[in-house]
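Subject: Interface between my chains keeps coming out wrong

I've been trying for a while to get a sensible model of this assembly. When I model each chain on its own everything looks fine, but I need the whole thing in one frame so I can look at the contacts. Pasting all components below, labels as-is. Any help appreciated, I'm running out of ideas.
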Amino acid sequence: MKAILVREFGGPEVLKLEEVPIPKPAAGEVLVRIHAAGVNPYDTYMRAGTYAQKPPLPYTPGSDAAGVIEGIGEGVEKVKEGDRVYTAQTLSGAYAEYALAREEQVHPLPAKTNFAQGAGLWVPYGTAYHALHHAAGAHASETVLVHGASGGVGTAAVQIARAMGLTVLGTAGTPKGLEIAKREGAHQVFDHRKAGYQAEILQATGNHGVDIILEMLANVNLSHDTKLIGNRGRVIVIGNRGEVTINPRELMARRASIHGFTLWGITPAEEAEIHAGLIAGLENGTLRPVVGKELPLAEATRAHNEVLEPGAIGKIVLVC
Ligand code: NAP
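Reply #2:
Try treating it as a single job with all components included. I did that and got this:
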């Protein structure tokens, strides 16, 4: 089979398409014929060797994929050959024609959801769901600012928050990104490249501030966020690429809080809830993963370059 291999940490050019044996599922494992693999920003940090988790080399990147069960190991009862599934992590890596996964790492892919969309589920939608439901404790009638609403996590968060009954404000940095955020459910959108856009956001809340901020670029925005958040508001730091200075007094006056967030810390019970919630949303049509770009597996290097560039439109996926 063809798979992307990383033999040394480094720039996007270390992603090489190679021919490797198709793995065999052991007891409790499944073999998935991958049709599409999602490209997440953290895949690039891991490839560069700068991420908290450093996989042993060589490795195949990717946690998010969608495809069809090709084989099952002894004792597997959850799925059978021919089932359509999406993955939430794999054992052997998602950027490949086949991947091994533990039985509990695969989940049914609803008929309405195509493979490219299924590849954009776990990290973006899991993050958005966990951030809103568990980290922020969001509830209907609150206002959320999705600070970075055009990318993978942002479009997912807009759809989920809208379905939960929140008022959704979203930002993006291009006209197309603003259009997508609006189309996916944001009540109002703001251009985060425009000088002074924060004042427009505050105005949109009647100067009360927002209840929740899902922050995709904290090093740029956190100081402003402390002034955009309302009384007892919660800033959830999902994305960050550097250091930032804030004035804690802004938080004190509002009794507001900043929460560090990671999807990796979830409990099995939270993960079970997330998948149940996501599958229900896909089935009832409130969740519709946005795939902005499909590239062949051989173009993984290009995908890693582009996923870090401005102008996000939902997900970039590799078609296998
Ligand atoms: P993505 O698809 O590449 O999207 C990036 C988003 O950030 C786009 O909406 C982009 O908007 C926006 N952005 C760019 N400049 C911004 C600014 N100045 N202010 C606000 N937003 C800005 O990435 P993603 O998959 O959505 O992930 C977003 C971030 O969260 C990444 O840093 C990722 O590593 C992180 N993340 C963390 C976790 C976790 O567990 N903590 C999980 C998933 C993702 P434009 O392109 O329109 O400018």
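Reply #3:
Confirming on my end. The pocket of NAP is lined by residues 40-42, 123-124, 127, 147-154, 171-174, 177, 192, 216-217, 220-221, 238-239, 261-263, 307, 310-312 (CB under 6 Å).
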